[in-house]
Automatic annotation (TrEMBL):
InterPro entries: F-box_BR-signaling, KIB1-4_b-propeller. The lineage of its organism: Eukaryota, Viridiplantae, Streptophyta, Embryophyta, Tracheophyta. PANTHER family: DUF295 DOMAIN-CONTAINING PROTEIN-RELATED (PTHR44259:SF89), OS07G0183000 PROTEIN-RELATED (PTHR44259). This is KIB1-4 beta-propeller domain-containing protein. Residues 55-332 form the KIB1-4 beta-propeller domain. It comes from Arabis alpina.
């Protein structure tokens, strides 16, 4: 297993009124872009452009040397602040803390190579620990839509793949429960909640029941029925489990500077319409709709979902969901109001293909 450390050079001089992410403890942030600055005798020098939701500002990381193991790899997921990547040729998998803003010596852990090329649009990664350097851990991933994969890097020389073609597919994001020490997901239609049982390497399913549904006019339900819905599971710092429905709607907007054969040109894009949050009620896999999660805020996107206490990170809005998917923004659960943010402007080609929320490096007790 390759574990190695690199030194950090001088701070990157900002020209875009962005600030440096240097204060501790670190707040959650969105990894938006990774830029190659120059080539050095030791390798490629990069830095990262991030979005800080506590200030709603663009921030820059320090300059860092890109480990050779990661050069040319595609980023496929993030969990607990660690980012997973896969080599396009040899299908080698790595996880690294390189992208954490305040990390000065990047660490890389090599995982067993895959035997197939992953479908990056469906990749999800979840770690059983926030510090895999300290000891044994398990990583679970969904590299395509018909199998679930996992391994224990300190013990396994290869991935274990569980085919799911004949069972309810794991359609929601993978999530590791610290409370139950299990990986969870929901089925394709959200009717079942699945768990990966590491003791016998099998999937277990239980019926998922949603109660106390929100009171929405019939026309409102008709609009939601036309939306795309994704499903997410997340655990709070105290061990509460939440099930989230994320509704996005396709919008057609005219584009005045282009014309098609009929004299009009339309742009189609997706916007967030609504979230529904359901709180676990006891141990019966019953979830009750709620518009009040108190001091908590939830982060959803291409990375593993996570939940934080807003009061621990001044600037975060309690009872809110921060999202990156169709657009970047926050959603107030009490008012059901969407607040969009302007994402950092994109310049030169980025080494990062998909934005990931990064869990804070230094959690506050």
């Amino acid at each position: 297993m390759a574990l190695f450390f690199n030194r950090i050079s001088k701070l990157y001089a900002s020209r875009n009124n962005a600030r440096f992410f240097s204060s501790l403890p670190q707040s959650p942030c969105l990894l938006f872009e990774s830029k190659a600055l120059r080539q050095s005798p030791e390798g490629k020098i990069v830095n990262h452009i991030l979005f800080d939701p506590t200030t709603e500002e663009k921030v820059y990381s320090k300059e860092k040397k890109l480990p050779k193991e990661l050069d040319g790899q595609s980023l496929v997921g993030a969990s607990q602040g660690w980012v997973a990547s896969v080599g396009n040729k040899d299908l080698t998998v790595h996880i690294t803390d390189l992208y954490k803003p305040c990390v000065s010596s990047a660490r890389v852990i090599s995982l067993p190579p895959l035997k197939f090329k992953p479908s990056t649009h469906a990749t999800e990664v979840s770690l059983s620990t926030c510090d895999p350097i300290q000891g044994d851990f398990t990583v679970a991933a969904k590299f395509n839509e018909c199998r679930l994969s996992f391994c224990r890097p300190y013990w396994d020389a290869k991935w274990t793949h569980i085919e799911t073609a004949d069972s309810p597919l794991p359609a929601s994001d993978l999530m590791y429960s610290k409370r139950d020490k299990a990986f969870y997901f929901t089925s394709l239609k959200g009717l079942y909640m699945g768990a990966l049982d590491l003791s016998n390497k099998k999937l277990k399913y239980q019926q998922l029941r949603l109660r106390n549904m929100p009171k929405i006019p019939e026309v409102g339900w008709e609009i939601l029925d036309q939306c795309f819905m994704s499903k997410h599971l997340v655990e709070s710092p105290s061990g509460e489990l939440f099930f989230i429905k994320w509704y996005t709607q396709c919008i057609r907007t005219p584009c005045n500077n282009k014309e098609d054969k009929d004299g009009e040109y339309e742009m189609i894009h997706s916007v967030t319409k609504r979230f529904m949050v359901f709180r676990e009620d006891g141990k019966n896999i019953d979830f009750c709709y709620t518009e009040d999660i108190g001091d908590l805020c939830i982060f959803l996107g291409k990375s593993e979902a996570f939940c934080l206490k807003a009061s621990m990170y001044p600037g975060l809005k309690p009872n809110s969901i921060y999202y990156i998917g169709p657009g970047l923004g926050s959603y107030d659960l009490a008012s059901n109001m969407v607040r969009p943010y302007n994402p950092p402007a994109s310049g030169a080609p980025s080494l990062v293909r998909a934005p990931f929320w990064l869990h804070p490096t230094y959690p506050i007790a």
